[in-house]
Amino acid sequence: MPSRKDFLSNPYLEVLGYHQLTKEQIQYFEEFFQIAEVLPISQDVLNQAVILRQQKKMTLGDAIIASTALVYGLILITRNTDDFRWVTQLRLWNPFESDKPS
């Protein structure tokens, strides 16, 4: 498990906006986001998001999430690794598939 508590800036909307969350899951994620470090969407992140979206069709949210991880040198923790595998410089980790990032 990563030792740093650096998390990405856009997942609050992505996660809590999911329409099938239970009340318990909502409470868990709300508590999580209260202690997580929120990273700003800087100009560097925006520039990287533009580059990614020019290379392949992707949602704005996914582009910002991937770009934030790239710019800040972080591992992107997601269950949906398929949408990001094409970004060769991006380090991915699905905690549902392995105990530690690769």
Give the helix/strand class. Answer: mainly alpha
Q: What is the name of the CATH superfamily?
A: 5'-nuclease
Beta content comes to 5-15%
- Number of structural units classed as domains: 1
- Uncertain segments: 1-9
- The number of strands is 4
Helix content: 40-55%
- Describe the oligomeric state of these chains in a short phrase: single chain
Question: Main attributes?
Answer:
two-stranded parallel sheet, 10% strand, 102 residues, mainly alpha, Rossmann fold, two-stranded parallel ribbon, disordered N terminus, globular
3D structure, described in words:
It holds the Pfam family PIN. Residues 24-85 form the PIN domain. This is PIN domain-containing protein. This protein has helices spanning 11-16, 23-35, 43-55, 60-72, and strands at residues 6-7, 37-38, 75-77, 91-93. By secondary structure, it is mostly helical. The model is unreliable at 1-9 (pLDDT under 50).
Write the SSE topology:
Elements: E1 6-7, H1 11-16, H2 23-35, E2 37-38, H3 43-55, H4 60-72, E3 75-77, E4 91-93
Parallel strand pairs: 1-2, 3-4
Domain PIN: 24-85
Protein name: PIN domain-containing protein
